[in-house]
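Input.
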Amino acid sequence: MKAESVAFAVAGMCFGLILGWVLATQDASRSSPSLPAAAPAAAPVTNQRQAPPLDETRVKTLQAAIEKDPNNAANYAQLANAYFDAEQYPSAIDNYERSLKLNPNDADVSTDLGVSYFYTNRTDEALAQFERSLKISPNHTKTLLNKGIVLAFGKENLEAAAKEWKRVVELAPDSPEGQRARQALEGVEAAHARQGTTNQ
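Output.
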């Protein structure tokens, strides 16, 4: 994928607004547990703009490479990335899954598959896929960062999300993932502070 953590990049565009919404939903769900679960935060963002165009030349080149060497996991992963970049997530999922069948120990591809599941409203499958990634690489910061995002926006569980983000900061504080995790934690703290002020 173009970004190391696409889920965070998209969710981050409206992080403050979404975080406030998640906090409000958490409070409402405690008093009214029968409320329906909300869709992932990415859904309203992607609906407000046009998806990037698919790189047809890249796709054709990769498809030709796959025809010549159908057992090359990297070609399937690159094809999946091309579809992901164009927000064609079902096609991305299909090719990430094919790549993982050939190379099941690729934590990056496994995590990209999890993010793709999230963007198709398959939150539980996304989290399960992240767990597979963490079995391959327990300290995989990209996985931990995205797991936190899915827990926050897909499951509305900020406490669990913050735990994952804190782990990212501990493991790699100066990495892009560490910086994004720190921003997310600051957003959580600021939202809680605003909520506390409002409730007084």
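The domain at 6-19+39-185 is CATH 1.25.40.10 (Serine Threonine Protein Phosphatase 5, Tetratricopeptide repeat).
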